[in-house]
Amino acid sequence: MGAKVDAHAMYLGERINTAAFEQHALSSVPLAIRGGASGIAVLFRYGVVVLIGLTASEEKEFLDRLRPRIGGLFDSVDEETATVEIAGDGEDQVPAGGPIQLRQLSPERLLVIADALAKSVVLAHDEREAAKVFEVIEPFAKELSDHGRTKRSRTEMMRLIGKALLVQHRVSGRVAITEKPDALWDRPDLERLYARLEDEYELRERVETLNRKLAVISETAATLADIIDTRRALRLELIVVLLIAFEVVIGVYQIAIGRGH
């Protein structure tokens, strides 16, 4: 085996303003620039940076430069690391749990690896967010199952729906997890490498699982919101009935008083 480099993906925030780095670009989509003495940094506008071949001190220096350009900085950072090594002759390989083996450390190959790692860290973040929503919604569902009703407010339910839609938008909108990287348009011969990376990080399976969870969250929250609306409608109907009954009583009383005179 030949030389080895480490690839380090970090999901830092909701977006990265890449304009300041574009004049030094090695690649425009995704944006890749030189990093450290001999490494590269791949910047994804949806908030992920992948550093390849940088030392720990070089990573720190680069992140210090990048941080002011991150919008919606996260309190905790999701990370994914991989070791990439030159395997010489033969096909590019992605052994399960082992280093990624490449015929050569070409920029296009590194961009394909960066794309897979970036998608994996975004999924890890969204999976955790969905799990948090599940933890919140479970007591509602149990309350409904045990008592056939809930005391929770519609506002709480709408917050849950909002969280579910936000994560779903991130998966289907800004971060096209199931789409192939742009590098493959010019290098279709690297599709097999990407397919192996996609399998190793279970990208498609994780997206499908996440979407199913989000669907359950949205359906449950919508059902509970409907129940609250129904309960509110019943209360309004009861108030209307009571008002009508009150008017009838007043009318009967007035008629009775009139006859007495």
Automatic annotation (TrEMBL):
The keyword Transmembrane applies. Residues 42-211 form the DUF155 domain. It holds the Pfam family DUF155. The chain crosses the membrane at residues 238-257. It comes from the Bacteria. Keywords: Membrane, Transmembrane, Transmembrane helix. This is RMD1 family protein. The lineage of its organism: Bacteria, Pseudomonadati, Pseudomonadota, Alphaproteobacteria, Hyphomicrobiales.
